[in-house]
Amino acid sequence: DAGVIQSPRHEVTEMGQEVTLRCKPISGHDYLFWYRQTMMRGLELLIYFNNNVPIDDSGMPEDRFSAKMPNASFSTLKIQPSEPRDSAVYFCASSPDRDRPSGSTGELFFGEGSRLTVL
Amino acid sequence: DQQVKQNSPSLSVQEGRISILNCDYTNSMFDYFLWYKKYPAEGPTFLISISSIKDKNEDGRFTVFLNKSAKHLSLHIVPSQPGDSAVYFCAASTLYNFNKFYFGSGTKLNVKP
User: What is the pLDDT of residues A20-78, one digit of tens each?
Assistant: First the structure.
């Protein structure tokens, strides 16, 4: 079974350009998460969706960031305009629906990440 | 403001010895904790979890200990193997927002042969 698929794996762009990162979650998973990894802050949750609906976007840094999930098998994270401080690895993760205390581990399944460099 | 903290950015251990990775949290509402392992150029993968109703959970060479009064958890790896060399993240969530996991900044473990 395919895992979470992210593209592109690497993106190098110039300041001011638009960046679009893409994610295909595991089929059947109801939750989709976007995280950003930096040296200083580790893994930060940017936004997550449940059944394609954004539930919590309080981690989105500013209005330059936007995320969409038009259907259950696709999500995008867009940065417009990009800035050098946006340079990071962006991870997408998905998980099945779960309701504690069902015994589920609460595991998130991560993609391999998209490394963004803004010059 | 980070609610989950891993204060040791790196740890080096000899093969066969115990590795102890630490994690502290500030939010007393956290009641579910996980550890993830991450190899370079890969996404994090789930390792082990613990609920606040327990103070220990064991899975093979990996044991997680939870000290609620100290708001501290630790991951013990015994015996450590070179293949355990990776970045380890701890994460926490609350009962009322189970799906929102807060991650620490990670600890890079190096197990020397």
Answer: 999 999 998 889 999 999 888 889 999 999 999 999 999 998 899 999 999 999 999 99
- Do the beta carbons of residue A24 and residue A4 sit within 8 Å? yes
Closest CA relative to residue A15, chosen from A109, A111, A96, A87? A87
Q: Which residue has the tokens 């013990």?
A: B76
pLDDT on residue A38: 87
* Interface mutation vs chain B, best among A49, A108, A109, most B CBs within 10 Å: A108
Interface probe, candidates A33, A37, A51, chain B, greatest B C-beta count within 10 A: A37
- Would you state the pLDDT for residue A102? 46
Name the nearest CA neighbour of A43 among B32, B104, B10: B104
User: Dihedrals φ, ψ of A85, to 5°?
Assistant: -70, -5
d(CA A23, CA A41): 22
Cα-only R_g, chain B: 13
